[in-house]
């Protein structure tokens, strides 16, 4: 059974990896054989060369974008968790603030981005705000759902043990909400990269999004692809980081899932 | 407690009524239930499903309020009676049907939950709980997560959590209902021993007539919904008791006393269910 498990584990990694490699090979061959001009579509090998030759340029812009993402995401995390806690704990906040939070999602944040330039200028701040605004929603809404997902029988059990409202919140509602919260965080992390790039497109003088808008009219297409590659790696890296944090904070959750799937085997 | 003569009522319930709004209709769940449990007694309540047994325990535990009637729970202080739900909440040990262990806490940390809520430090509480893990058959599993445990062990962990609160009155709502027959018998014998050494007042809900007779000093039989106590039976079997007694003639006589009205009720219950198809209550 353990052999089977490790084999199926290997396969789950091998299959997407194989698909990716095949796509890259097809791309490379097509560019080479059809003689596609480099400014139109560079081959993967050319993008690889560009990654090496412009590495210091890419690195500088990466740091800027990463900074926007990390600060914006952390701001969204703190605000999202505090607000979710308030909404789950207080009926008044739930009735008054929660509908506004949900309605706010219908506002196209891309449309607000130019306004932010007018209000807070060209620096890092407007990008951080855009990242925070976009990450905030999935974190807050998922956490509210999680805080409310408590089993009423569990609540009664705690009350018969003499628990106060606050103790029910800290001992039951918060741990129950963790898997939900991490779903929100993983969605937030994934969209944070897009948010930062949008912020930089609207107006900036640095960052990977800026590098893309700057290189494209100059037909430095390989550099555009190199920047996109770095953005993807950044997004995947942040997602993995969130997933690792999830595993470390909820070991029981993954043990339980594992033992359930073992039982099914 | 052991020095007291066991005549002082610990729980006294006078004709309580309770209705719920179920599927858009007012349904009476308890229709005038009377119940007296003296200090140190083991009392069982037997009845068909849906007769309001759990509602009754919820009311005693202070999770719910009756529409009318009186509930008095004697506190540890002599002469003091806890009459409102708010006063009674947190003053009984209540173990529900499900074990309700928190999946993110180890077995040991689940058992100390009540002590922690009282304000004890984790360290103190753990020390206290560790004294009992052997007696509750949890030794060696203190640091396991609940989902790795068998059903019987999970129930014993939930039971230790309840008992560590050291309340005089312990309410048990079908604690062995979800267990297989053999584990169930083991748990019944284990509970017998435990109760005989602890001098607690216990109210047990069950629909297992053998279980009720084996464990109790007195058995209340409840009718199908709306529930009321239709029969009170004193179980005068000698103590200490053993599972072997289930096959003795005395036991069979008592069982016959309970089974006859219980079967009559289940039949009328079935008849009613046939008349009102689609109105299945829980």
Can you tell me about this structure?
The complex is a heterodimer of chains A (265) and B (282). Chain A has twelve helices and no strands. Chain A has 265 residues and is mainly α. Chain A has one domain (45-264): Orthogonal Bundle (MetI-like fold). Chain A is flat, with a radius of gyration of 23 Å. Helix content of chain A is 85%, strand content 0%. With 282 residues, chain B is α/β, with parallel strands linked by helices. Chain B has a domain at 1-92 and 203-276: P-loop containing nucleotide triphosphate hydrolases (Rossmann fold). Chain B has nine helices and ten strands. Chain B has helices spanning 53-61, 85-88, 107-111, 113-118, 122-130, 151-163, 181-198, 209-215, 249-275, and strands at residues 9-22, 25-38, 42-46, 68-74, 81-82, 93-95, 169-173, 201-206, 218-222, 229-234. In chain B, a hairpin with a 2-residue loop joins β1 and β2 (25-38). In chain B, α8 (209-215) crosses α9. Chain B starts with 8 loop residues before the first strand and ends in a 7-residue tail after the last helix. The model of chain B is unreliable at 1-6 and 277-282 (pLDDT under 50). The interface between A and B is medium-sized, with 23 and 25 residues.
Radius of gyration of chain B: 19 Å
Find the CATH superfamily of chain A.
Answer: MetI-like
Would you identify the regions of chain A where 5 or more consecutive residues have pLDDT less than 50?
A: none
CATH topology of chain A: MetI-like fold
Q: How does CATH name the architecture of chain A? A: Orthogonal Bundle
Q: Beta-sheet strand percentage of chain B?
A: 15-25%
Mean pLDDT of chain A: 91
Ends of chain B: how far apart?
39 Å
- What structural category do the secondary elements of chain B indicate? alpha/beta
The geometry of chain A reads as: flat
What is the H level of CATH, i.e. the homologous superfamily of the domain at 1-92 and 203-276 in chain B? P-loop containing nucleotide triphosphate hydrolases
Kindly provide the name of the CATH class of chain A.
Mainly Alpha
């Amino acid at each position: 059974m353990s052999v089977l498990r490790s084999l199926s584990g290997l396969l789950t990694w091998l299959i997407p990896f194989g698909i990716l490699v095949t796509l890259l090979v097809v791309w490379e061959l097509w560019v080479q054989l059809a003689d596609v001009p480099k400014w139109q579509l560079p081959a993967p090998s050319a993008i690889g060369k560009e990654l090496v030759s412009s590495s210091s340029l890419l690195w500088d812009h990466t740091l800027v974008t990463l900074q926007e993402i990390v600060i914006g995401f952390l701001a969204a995390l703190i605000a999202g968790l505090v607000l979710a806690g308030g909404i789950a704990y207080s009926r008044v906040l739930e009735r008054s603030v929660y509908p506004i939070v949900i309605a706010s999602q219908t506002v196209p944040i891309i449309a607000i981005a130019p306004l932010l330039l007018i209000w807070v200028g060209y620096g890092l701040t407007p990008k951080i705000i855009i990242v925070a605004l976009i990450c905030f929603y999935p974190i807050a809404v998922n956490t509210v759902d999680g805080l409310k997902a408590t089993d009423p029988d569990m609540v009664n059990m705690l009350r018969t043990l003499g628990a106060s409202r606050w103790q029910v919140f800290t001992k039951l509602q918060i741990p129950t909400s963790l898997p939900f919260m991490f779903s929100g965080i993983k969605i937030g992390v994934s969209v944070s990269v897009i948010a930062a790039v949008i912020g930089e497109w609207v107006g900036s003088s640095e960052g990977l999004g800026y590098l893309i808008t700057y290189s494209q009219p100059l037909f430095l297409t390989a550099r555009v692809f190199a920047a996109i590659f770095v953005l993807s790696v950044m997004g995947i890296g942040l997602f993995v980081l969130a997933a690792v944090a999830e595993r470390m904070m909820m070991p029981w959750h993954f043990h339980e899932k594992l033992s359930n799937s073992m039982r099914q085997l | 407690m052991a020095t007291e003569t066991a005549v002082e009522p610990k729980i006294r319930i006078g004709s309580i009524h309770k209705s719920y709004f179920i599927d858009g209709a007012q349904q009476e769940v308890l229709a005038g239930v009377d119940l007296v449990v003296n200090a140190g007694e083991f009392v069982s309540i037997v009845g068909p499903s849906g007769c309001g047994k759990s509602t009754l325990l919820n009311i005693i535990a202070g999770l719910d309020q009756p529409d009318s009637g009186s509930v008095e729970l004697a506190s540890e202080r002599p002469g003091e009676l806890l009459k409102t739900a708010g006063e009674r909440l947190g003053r009984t040990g209540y173990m529900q049907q499900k074990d309700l262990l928190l999946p993110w806490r180890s077995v040991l940390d689940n058992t100390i939950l009540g002590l922690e809520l009282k304000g004890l430090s984790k360290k103190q509480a753990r020390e206290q709980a560790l004294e009992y893990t052997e007696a509750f058959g949890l030794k060696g599993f203190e640091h396991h997560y609940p989902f790795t445990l068998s059903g019987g062990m999970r129930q014993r962990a939930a039971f230790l959590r309840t008992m560590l609160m050291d309340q005089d009155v312990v309410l048990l709502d079908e604690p062995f209902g979800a267990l297989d027959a053999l584990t169930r018998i083991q748990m019944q014998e284990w509970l017998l021993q435990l109760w005989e050494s602890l001098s607690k007042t216990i109210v047990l809900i069950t629909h297992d007539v053998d279980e009720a007779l084996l464990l109790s000093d007195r058995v209340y039989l409840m009718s199908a919904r709306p529930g009321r106590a239709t029969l009170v039976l004193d179980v005068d079997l000698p103590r200490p008791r053993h599972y072997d007694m289930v096959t003795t003639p005395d036991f069979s006589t008592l069982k016959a006393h309970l089974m006859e009205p219980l079967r009559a009720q289940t039949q009328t219950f079935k008849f009613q269910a046939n008349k009102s198809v689609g109105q299945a209550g829980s």
